[in-house]
């Protein structure tokens, strides 16, 4: 929690320097859908107590907000102290929850935090303990199955370990609408390099004009350990979602 506090304080101070009043007030946690019930509580009792205790605004995205994914966004609003108190209460509840997935050997063990103005850059991300099917992020930012030649979701394909990644190396291809590629790549490739560094995965995007047959979607191939792939998918989803809201 102390590390999260220091990082969040730094990010919020930089957003504050940009004089963006709107963006300074929100923090987002990425939480597995199966654990949201613990945060809400019976009849909303838990989330109500969190709001009263922290004085922060807490809002959980609809269950079907992003089809095909098993995570929901918990948005926190308020002052730095109010947000930190809310984060502490939520994480404490998640640790007690039997449905909360165990921590993988990932570079960031906490629930993901997204500060607007720094879209897609997490303080940490708890990788869900479920196998992700390749996801296609359409023009509206919503996810869907990316079909293989046989019309079913392409599986994670094991590959021989090698390169800088440790342990078993796998590969997944997801489809992303061409209009969102710029947001994923970032100016000078900054975003995609950041995603690769944070997740530990290698990411390759098909060339301009190289679309999936019958679509305007580009192929994004993610290679790495299962947890690195899931983390990279989550970070890419954040970039697409942020770009869709503009």
From TrEMBL:
Transmembrane portions of the chain? none
Q: Which GO terms describe its molecular function?
A: RNA binding
Organism per entry: Musa balbisiana
Question: By its UniProt entry, which PANTHER family does this protein fall under?
Answer: KH DOMAIN CONTAINING RNA BINDING PROTEIN
Gene3D superfamilies reported in the protein's UniProt record? K Homology domain, type 1 (3.30.1370.10)
InterPro entries named among the record's database cross-references? KH_dom (IPR004087), KH_dom_type_1 (IPR004088), KH_dom_type_1_sf (IPR036612)
Q: Which UniProt keywords apply?
A: Repeat, RNA-binding
List the protein's name.
K Homology domain-containing protein
Where in the numbering of this chain does the K Homology domain appear?
Answer: 23-95, 168-241
